[in-house]
């Protein structure tokens, strides 16, 4: 009730200010009116918040003693964020915009697998920071682990293709699978060998996708079994993407030339190198 | 710097200049494939028109996130990697203790088919899962939006409600208190148990703590990063020798 009142109070002044034209003083007046009616947690800005960091976002973010590891011939796009316990094995590729957050548990991308654009892979449980052991979350994950016998870490085995914009959370994907684009795999799901998930499928928590079958839909339902030829195509797709990733890999030399820009900038701003 | 030091420095400079000249030669050979690298102009907090984001000092905003325009982020909130909060045509206000997870998009609607102007208001202790798309909605305190969910214009998610993963909540739907809505289009699935409601607030708290860890790590300077890398290598060597 109180929350609703708060929200309606926030809504009204805002609609007022949006209908006013962009003239400086009227906008100011509306702003101050809005500010006086807002009773709630005042946002305290910090003077030294960095608005622009020329370094951009780091690709590998170690948390505590866990540092992400990338194999020497794995291609990880510069856009990607690997945080915490993430291991990317040989021949694997992680494409642009993906976020692999191994901060709560381990994530591993197996041999010759690929995680395509804008995927988010996360693993639940076991936060190193304050986490009460008898919460429902812990119970839920332990229950799932007990049921499925699967750990809460996300492990992607060899020759797996994970389509673009998929979301994986604490799932196990056995060797040689294809996960379609925009699919969502929730906690505790298991995708067995040679399974294919169609694009847009949502796999509910704890669901097992049996071996050699094609599943689709939200929630994922059985469609048909795969023929032997289709099963043979799965590792071929992974290898093809591996080949593609090698040409991307060679585009990105170990050291870029951005440091020249930085030096120019420092010189022009009078900062000593 | 003594003479020897200066000599070594000059030698180093010559080697660098030679290297840069060879780099340029290689580019000339590559011809039209030459890409001149420039520093990324990506800005985490970006003004647009005259609106600028107002972010609390305790909030964690990942460097690869984009917070643009009229956005307010309260204390303890976290905006994770790759998310985009575009307050360009209207305002977004994110309460305290809320987490907006990786690769999500929060946008506002200036005008839509029904003609309403909708700011996005996200309350306190809300969990918005990975890759969610929130467009002109009101999400009240302690709600849970599952990953990959798409919430269209005018949706109101009430307190303690849950939008399941992958659902598409159509325009102007109201998700009542304590209910789980799922599917495409989103329909009522079941009611949340008390345990699950407690879990939602617990998860928000966990994320506040997790955000602090990430914030500390992302704020490190180059020196600190290099030092830690070296320490980690030394530690690995020590453990390797211990195992042997």
UniProtKB/TrEMBL annotation, chain A:
InterPro entries: LbH_gamma_CA-like, Transf_Hexapept/Carb_Anhydrase, Trimer_LpxA-like_sf. It comes from the Eukaryota. It is found in: Mitochondrion membrane. CDD domains: LbH_gamma_CA_like. It is a peripheral membrane protein. Belongs to the gamma-class carbonic anhydrase family. This is Gamma carbonic anhydrase-like protein. The lineage of its organism: Eukaryota, Viridiplantae, Streptophyta, Embryophyta, Tracheophyta.
Automatic annotation (TrEMBL), chain B:
Pfam families: Hexapep (PF00132). Signal peptide: none annotated. InterPro entries: Hexapep, LbH_gamma_CA-like, Transf_Hexapept/Carb_Anhydrase, Trimer_LpxA-like_sf. It is a peripheral membrane protein. Gene3D superfamilies: Hexapeptide repeat proteins (2.160.10.10). CDD domains: LbH_gamma_CA_like. It is found in: Mitochondrion membrane. Belongs to the gamma-class carbonic anhydrase family. This is Gamma carbonic anhydrase. It comes from Rehmannia glutinosa (Chinese foxglove).
């Amino acid at each position: 009730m109180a929350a609703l009142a708060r929200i309606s109070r926030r809504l009204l002044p805002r609609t007022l200010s949006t209908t006013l034209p962009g003239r400086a003083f009227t906008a100011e007046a509306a702003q101050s009116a809005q500010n006086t009616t807002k009773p709630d947690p005042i946002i305290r800005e910090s003077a030294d918040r960095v608005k622009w960091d020329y370094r951009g976002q780091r690709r590998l973010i170690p948390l505590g003693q866990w540092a992400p590891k990338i194999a020497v011939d794995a291609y990880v796009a510069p856009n990607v964020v690997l945080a915490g316990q993430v291991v990317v094995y040989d021949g694997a590729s992680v494409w642009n915009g993906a976020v692999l957050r191994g901060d709560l548990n381990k994530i591993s991308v197996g041999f010759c697998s690929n995680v395509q654009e804008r995927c988010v892979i996360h693993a639940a449980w076991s936060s190193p920071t304050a986490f009460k052991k008898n919460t429902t979350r812990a119970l839920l994950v332990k229950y799932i682990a007990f049921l499925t016998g699967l750990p809460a870490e996300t492990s992607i085995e060899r020759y797996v293709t994970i389509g673009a914009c998929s979301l994986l959370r604490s799932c196990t994907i056995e060797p040689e699978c294809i996960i379609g684009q925009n699919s969502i795999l929730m906690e505790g799901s298991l995708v067995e060998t040679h399974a294919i998930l169609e694009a847009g499928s949502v796999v509910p928590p704890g669901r097992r996708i049996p071996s050699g079958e094609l599943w689709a839909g939200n929630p994922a339902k059985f469609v048909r079994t795969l023929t032997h030829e289709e099963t043979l195509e799965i590792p071929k797709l992974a290898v093809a993407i591996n080949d593609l990733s090698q040409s991307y890999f060679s585009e990105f030399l170990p050291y870029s030339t951005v440091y020249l820009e930085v030096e120019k900038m420092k010189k022009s701003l009078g900062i000593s190198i | 710097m003594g003479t020897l030091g200066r000599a070594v420095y000059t030698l180093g400079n010559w080697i660098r200049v030679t290297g840069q000249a060879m780099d340029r030669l290689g580019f000339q050979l590559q011809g039209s494939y030459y890409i001149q690298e420039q520093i990324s102009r990506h800005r985490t907090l970006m003004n647009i028109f005259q609106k600028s984001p107002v972010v609390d000092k305790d909030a964690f905003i990942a460097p690869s996130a984009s917070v643009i325009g009229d956005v307010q982020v309260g204390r303890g909130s976290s905006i994770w990697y790759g998310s985009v909060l575009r307050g360009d045509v209207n305002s977004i206000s994110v309460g305290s203790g809320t987490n907006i997870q990786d690769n999500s998009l929060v946008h506002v609607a200036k005008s839509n088919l029904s003609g309403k102007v909708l700011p996005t208001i996200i309350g306190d202790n809300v969990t918005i899962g990975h890759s969610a798309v929130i467009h002109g909605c009101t999400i009240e305190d302690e709600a849970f939006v599952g990953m990959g969910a798409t919430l269209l214009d005018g949706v109101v998610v009430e307190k303690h409600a849950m939008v399941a993963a992958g659902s598409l909540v159509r325009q102007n739907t109201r998700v009542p208190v304590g209910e789980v809505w799922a599917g495409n289009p989103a329909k009522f699935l079941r009611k949340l148990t008390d345990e699950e409601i407690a879990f939602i607030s617990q998860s928000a708290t966990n994320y506040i703590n997790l955000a602090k860890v990430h914030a500390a790590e992302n704020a490190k300077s180059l020196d600190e990063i290099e030092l830690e890398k070296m320490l980690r290598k030394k530690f690995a060597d020590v453990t390797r020798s211990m195992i042997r």
